[in-house]
Amino acid sequence: MILNHLWGLYAHPKEEWHSIDARHESFRYSMIHILLVALIPSICAYYSAVYLGWSIGVGEKIYLTANSAMMLSVAMYIALIAGVFALGLLAHWMAHTFGAEPTYTQTLELASYTSTPLFMVGFAALYPELWFVMMVGLAGLAYSVYLLYVGVPILMHIPEERGFIYASSVVTCGLILLVTVLAATAIFWSSGYGPAFTH
């Protein structure tokens, strides 16, 4: 069943990583998991931008036009999926350095399950207060990093000491990917493709 590990990763993460390791899913399964979970932030962001309005602390709420919000939501969806696949590719590329021999499907599993808490943060957009979304986002990021540190030694079958360094390298790559996406967004917006606001 799709998303069948979701509850376990929150309730008992270490045991759930062992369960994931015991029966690795197919590439298709991991891909469907990513495609479904990435819908959460995209749909919630669209709804809040068009119908609820964003509050940044001062002034009136900010709304986007439906077309502009749709364009941004689709771009966000594509960027999230591409980011997970790129992180899986980087984790696979680095694995040999740390004495692991995973398949790309295994590293994609690692990337998809550790990114899930970050994607679930998308529900916070249904209460579009900037301070609230930032707090929930930090909590989601912290839990994603925790899942990564717990899951790497189990999925990669390497000692915890080496797993810690490997996980730290994956976190660094994830941060680089994030900065790349943010920089690309800034360039895109400055080229005349920024959001259109309603008044």
Automatic annotation (TrEMBL):
Keywords: Membrane, Transmembrane, Transmembrane helix. Its main location: membrane. It is a multi-pass membrane protein. The chain crosses the membrane at residues 32-54, 74-95, 132-152, 164-189. It is found in: Membrane. The keyword Membrane applies. Residues 7-180 form the Yip1 domain. Pfam families: Yip1. This is YIP1 family protein.
